[in-house]
Every structure is written in structure tokens, then in C-alpha cells.
Write a structure and sequence with these properties.
This protein is α+β, with helices and mostly antiparallel strands and about 290 residues long. The protein has two domains: about 120 residues, GAF domain (Beta-Lactamase, 2-Layer Sandwich); about 150 residues, 2-Layer Sandwich (Alpha-Beta Plaits). It has eight helices and eleven strands. The strands form three sheets. Strands 6-7-5-10-11 form a five-stranded mixed beta sheet, sandwiched between helices. It has a four-stranded antiparallel beta sheet with strand order 2-1-4-3, covered by helices on one side. Helix 1 runs parallel beside helix 3, helix 2 runs antiparallel to helix 3 and helix 5 crosses helix 6.
């Protein structure tokens, strides 16, 4: 038989879960929700660190310093995986603490699910569905951010615009599905050529931008030459048909007075010049 003190204790535990859930529902940031959850359960379940990993969304957050003993949970709702939650500390968790922790984690599920869905929606809105790289909206955001960072820290910044030569002819000859396949092959080729810190975007039908932080003109020219050569040698096969393509590239470096519009326009002018002067070549924006 449950005595009154046990009923009060159970009620208090349920109130704690409700309190945490209500608080977590105020944010759609995965990182903020995990940080808040760690803080809120700290007085109930002492822990040295709390981490959350969602490999599908490339989210990996850690609060605190990892310790010897751990307790890990795979979070899910209706068979929808939300990721892995881990707590660590210097001494092992008791059965009572584990039971209490599992009750508290109930407060995390739905706020985290909402934040994950929001993150997926935001990522989708900034991703090109054909190639999987950033779209024009993502490009505009990244270009603004990288110009600000480069200007604030007095760092170099370069941009490459590239365009597939005679892409309409590829579509007309082999079909639009083959053209899509060529764009996907081009993106893979470019991704294998750039550094981890470089940013690749598709901003038009067959038009792409690469943002290169902390890169000078000689560095961007080396990369542009490497990509042009690799694409020229690329053998793309679609339905047993070998399709070859070339690209034209325009490059420029950040100037003190630049904003997103002036930097893009100058690279676009260099790209136009490459098109006018025979294609399958690189042109550097004219200096003032």
C-alpha cells in the first residue's frame, strides 16, 4: 500500500518533469534545449558532462567534461530517432538515479523532437535538393558572414564562380535527367577538390559559387585550375552514354570596400569574360 509520503514524492517528481518540459518548449534550438536540460536536472542527478549526438543532422554538442562512468540513451518518438543522450560523472549511477533520470528524460522528448523538425526544415530551405549542397539563400547568408569575419579579423577571402559550358546542349542532346546527373558529378568533383573550410553552393541552374576563407589570389587560382582540369577529365556516364563537360570560372578577392553585391558582381564579370574568351578557362577580376 502506498503511503501519503510516497504519493507526495511521486507528485513532486511529476511536477519536476512538467516544469522542465514547459521550460524546454520555449526554444527551438537543439543546443539551447540540451544546455537547459542539463542545467535543470543538475540538482537532481549530479553529472560532470551531458552530450547529445544526432549524426543525421550532424549535431554534436557537449556540456562539461567527460568522466569515467556514463549513462547513454537512444531517444525516439514513434520510431523516429532523435539521437543519443549521454551523461557522465566520476562515480557510477545508482538504480534509483537511473530510474529518476529516465523519468526526467520524458520532459526532453517532445521539445527536442520539435527542435529537430525545425532544424530539418531550416536545413531543407537552405539546401539544393538535386546536389545536396547549399542553395542561393544559404550562399547569401554565408557570403555575408564570411565578409564580416574577414573584415573584422583582417583576413583574406576569395570567391570562385563557375558555370558549365554549353549546358543547354547537354540537356538537348542527352535529356534533362542526364543533365542533372552531370551536375551531381560536377559537385562531387568539386567537393573532392576543395578544403574542408571552403563552402560550395549552387545558385543557379548550372552556376556554382565557392567561398574560400583565408585564401589569397594565388591560392584561389591554384584551386580553380585544379577543378577546371578535373572536370575536363571527368567521364560522366548516364544510361551507357559517356558525357564530357567543361567549365568556365571567374575569381576575385575581397577588397576593403566590398559587400556581398560588389564581390559577387566582380566575380560574375570575370566569369562572363571567361565565357566570352573561349570557355573552359579561368579569368581573374580586373583590379581597380
Amino acid at each position: 500500500m502506498i503511503n501519503p509520503s510516497q504519493i507526495r514524492e511521486l507528485s513532486q517528481k511529476n511536477d519536476k518533469v512538467l516544469q522542465i518540459a514547459t521550460l524546454l518548449h520555449t526554444s527551438l534550438s537543439v543546443e539551447e534545449i540540451i544546455a537547459q536540460f542539463s542545467e535543470e536536472i543538475g540538482d537532481v542527478i549530479h553529472h560532470n558532462s551531458l552530450s547529445y549526438v544526432n549524426e543525421k543532422l550532424d549535431i554534436n554538442v557537449l556540456f562539461g567534461q567527460s568522466a569515467r562512468h556514463s549513462c547513454t540513451y537512444e531517444l525516439s518518438i514513434n520510431e523516429q530517432s532523435l539521437g543519443l543522450l549521454s551523461l557522465t560523472r566520476d562515480k557510477s549511477f545508482s538504480d534509483e538515479e537511473i530510474e529518476q533520470l529516465e523519468r526526467l528524460i520524458c520532459a526532453l522528448h517532445y521539445p527536442l523532437r520539435n527542435a529537430v523538425l525545425y532544424t530539418v526544415a531550416v536545413n531543407s530551405a537552405h539546401k539544393d535538393p538535386l546536389t545536396g549542397i547549399g542553395n542561393r539563400a544559404a550562399m547569401n547568408t554565408a557570403l555575408h558572414r564570411e565578409i564580416e569575419l574577414a573584415s573584422r579579423h583582417h583576413r583574406s577571402l576569395c570567391v570562385i564562380l563557375l558555370d558549365v559550358d554549353h549546358f543547354k546542349s547537354i540537356n538537348d542532346t542527352y535529356g534533362h535527367a542526364a543533365g542533372d546527373h552531370c551536375l551531381q558529378s560536377l559537385v562531387k568533383c568539386a567537393e573532392n577538390s576543395v578544403r574542408i573550410s571552403d563552402l560550395l553552393f549552387r545558385y543557379g541552374g548550372e552556376e556554382f559559387m565557392i567561398i574560400l576563407p583565408e585564401t589569397d589570389e594565388s591560392g584561389v587560382l591554384r584551386l580553380a585550375k585544379r577543378i577546371r582540369r578535373r572536370v575536363e577529365r571527368l567521364e560522366t556516364t548516364y544510361q551507357n552514354q559517356l558525357i564530357r563537360m567543361t567549365i568556365s570560372l571567374g575569381i576575385t578577392t575581397l577588397r576593403e570596400s566590398d559587400d556581398e553585391k560588389t564581390l559577387f558582381t566582380r566575380a560574375d564579370e570575370a566569369l562572363y569574360k571567361a565565357k566570352q574568351e573561349g570557355r573552359n578557362c579561368i579569368r581573374i577580376a580586373a583590379s581597380d
